[in-house]
């Protein structure tokens, strides 16, 4: 009888130790462990207070805003002024007309060179025989 009691006790102890080991293996996890560095960091973040700024700290850093002056409307010319300007424009001769009359001889010489080039370009192409 005593032997059977001891055997039952040993068997129950063995079962409980096996179940305790498996229970421990499942109950331990990374979230259960504490990260002391993270706790210290969060504590310091919560305790931080930004230094107070002076009320006139912006002086010298920011310019005062001044609205620009409103532009004035341009003066509208009268109809007599416009007609006078148009008459003066119509009477004026273009600038390039004077240049053509003074350099007429040069223009004909350059035209002859162009004509010679065009005639040479129109001529049929003659291949040289390769030996």
Automatic annotation (TrEMBL):
* GO molecular-function terms, A-Z: proton-transporting ATP synthase activity, rotational mechanism
Enumerate the InterPro entries for this protein.
Answer: ATP_synth_F0_suH
Biased-composition ranges for Basic and acidic residues? 88-99, 112-131
Q: Where is this region: Disordered?
A: 63-131
- Residue spans with biased composition (Polar residues)? 100-111
The highest taxon in the source lineage is: Eukaryota
The protein depicted here goes by the name: ATP synthase complex subunit H
């Amino acid at each position: 009888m005593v032997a059977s009691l001891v055997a039952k006790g040993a068997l129950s102890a063995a079962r409980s130790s096996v179940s305790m080991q498996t229970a421990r293996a499942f109950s331990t996890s990374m979230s259960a462990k504490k990260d002391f560095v993270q706790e210290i960091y969060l504590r310091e973040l919560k305790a931080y207070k930004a230094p107070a700024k002076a009320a006139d700290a912006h002086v010298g850093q920011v310019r005062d805003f001044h609205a620009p002056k409103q532009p004035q409307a341009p003066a509208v010319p009268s109809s007599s002024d416009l007609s006078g300007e148009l008459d003066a424009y119509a009477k004026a001769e273009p600038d390039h007309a004077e240049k053509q009359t003074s350099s007429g001889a040069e223009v004909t010489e350059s035209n002859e060179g162009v004509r010679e080039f065009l005639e040479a370009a129109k001529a049929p192409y003659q291949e040289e025989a390769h030996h």
